Amino acid sequence: MNLRPARKESHDSPATATTVADPTHGAQHVAIIMDGNGRWAKKKHLPRALGHKKGVEAVRNIVRAAGEMGINVLTLYAFSSENWSRPEDEISDLMGLLRQYIQSDIEEFVENGIKLKVIGNYKALEPDIVKLIEDALDRTAGNDRMVLAIALNYGAQDEIVRAMQNVAQAVKRGELTPEQIAPEHLNEALDTADLPPLDLLIRTSGEIRLSNFLLWQAAYSELYFTDVLWPDFDKRELQRALKSFGDRQRRFGGR
Ligand code: FPP
Question: How is domain 29-154+197-246 classified at the CATH fold level?
Fold first, then answer.
């Protein structure tokens, strides 16, 4: 799937034609650990639920901004397989917000060429949410402007184990020997199999850890940590992260 838009050229004056800088700075696939909703609410003496609600507004803005900037794939960590240990009412708030978000934004995805994808074991969510997700996946399957991959009930170790189980089944069927197992086999069995390599992984709220997100895929990604709390993360902050990405020299283990 070729999702990369053509570079925009300025033709205002042929004599001085300049290439408008690529706002993505070459980042095709950007992922975000959206952290800090609770602290945002606490700082403002508001209930945690309002922090999450404001977090959804930030999601909406960043999805729009990423589409405008020409990012090909945006992967968002919305609910981890460890988030089930949160209080029941908070889980219920998060699920309610997810429900509302899909229902209210699906038309915008359809109109704006956004293809929805879900990584993680989303089938364990409540049946009505699974149905909403699967309808949205169907309705946006033909879109090719940007992929919005939402991580739901996602944990990287769980994803890697599921991928390993698939590879082990292939070995059991006699399709390959244990010695033939190569990184490509894992890549092809991961939830992200159809996505381009992860270029940039952003985490908001000042925490400096990966929290079981895209551990395999982040092997050569650039990491960007910001103190900005997720509800305050906007287009300008995304531009800042992409600029930082553009300023780095990626060597992928070479020199
Ligand atoms: C971290 O805040 C955020 C999450 C639990 C995941 C992100 C969820 C949203 C942005 C809302 C729902 C998303 C969608 C796509 C509908 P935190 O509670 O861990 O914050 P804290 O560390 O400050 O307490």
Answer: Undecaprenyl pyrophosphate synthetase (3.40.1180)
